[in-house]
Amino acid sequence: MPPLIPVTSARIGDHLPLLQLLPDAEPLSWVRRGEGLVGWGVHATTTVTGKNRFRDAREWWHQQLGTFSITDTVHSSGTGPLLFSSFSFSQEEESVLVIPKVIVGNRGGQSWITWIGQNPQPVLLGEIDSTSAPKYSWRNGTLTPEVWQERVAEAIAAIAAGQIDKVVLARDLNGTADSQIDPRQILRNLEEEYPSTWCFSVAGLIGATPELLLRLNRSMVTSRVLAGTITRTGDDEKDLALAGSLARSSKDLEEHEYAVRSVAESLAPFCSSTNVPDSPFVLHLANVMHLATDVTGALAETSQHFDVFSILEKLHPSAAVCGTPTDIATKVISTLEGMARGRYAGPVGWIDARGDGELGIALRCGQVEGNKIRLYAGCGIVSGSDPVRELDESQAKFAPMMSALTKT
After folding, report:
1. Which band of pLDDT confidence, cut at 50, 70 and 90, is reported for residue 148?
2. Contact at 8 Å (CB) between 209 and 364?
């Protein structure tokens, strides 16, 4: 039997600028308001597919944990060895799992480092000089805007006919840069412009999601549901009025109710109690506002051990990224979207050795390959939807990534 591989976690003092520490162009990131985790180097990686991909991911992670000898003097959620995960939307496509060699974390003003191997504690290099942003050329994705609006109209007709209650339709946009794309620059720009989102990067999928699909920490579960969107104008007085109209919009409230119900019903079997607020609040981001609800729960004390993987298997896909009923919405998406979503709208984040973790929904994101990037945006379609307005909403959802790509 081979010797166990040492994994060491140690405190390193005060709060560090996480996204300035990344030493190479294949970063792993889960950062919000300067807190979270970054990683680099690859100790081990694999992919999983199929209907059992969450269980297969757990099995692989536990196999890897069995090869480690862990020394953790920090003893907190997110310390020790970590699995960065980016799951596909569809079970037919590949999900990516990565165990980094080095991880640095921040929480509550304190920082720590975890590293794998016999080597001494890695030296952190500090801030990396910024480079000028590449220039991009853009072309339509799978569908032209006009055809996508026609598909939205078809979805609205299916809803009117009683075939489905809600469906989320996404579209893509393809960009080509005049030089290699550096994900670190994108992450730093996203953090600066959208500090209330979770800035993530796993295996080339990079973005800033406002939607926390699942946080599991010491048997407490949280899920932030977003559904219902309106574009901001930049004028505070006008935006305040728009926020009020969003909170009263029957179309957006209907869309939001489906999403909240989907999450609450998925969490209920795992929890002894859940809390679902009676009405949503309006979440203000730099470019849009969303109806938002935080669903919380306490895991039930049973003989069966529930972890992030157990809950993800039931929680994904929620109505916020798929629709209602789920099985019919999935078929409608397959018929109308005409594209493979890849890991867009799938769970993305990290899982620790205890089975705790944080995963968001991979939204406001793009897949980078060399000098090319594919952006994604989706809209919830309900009975009150309008194809022109949905196209405008999708353009607003492209904006965070397009801005982050071109900012120097």
Report:
1. very high
2. yes
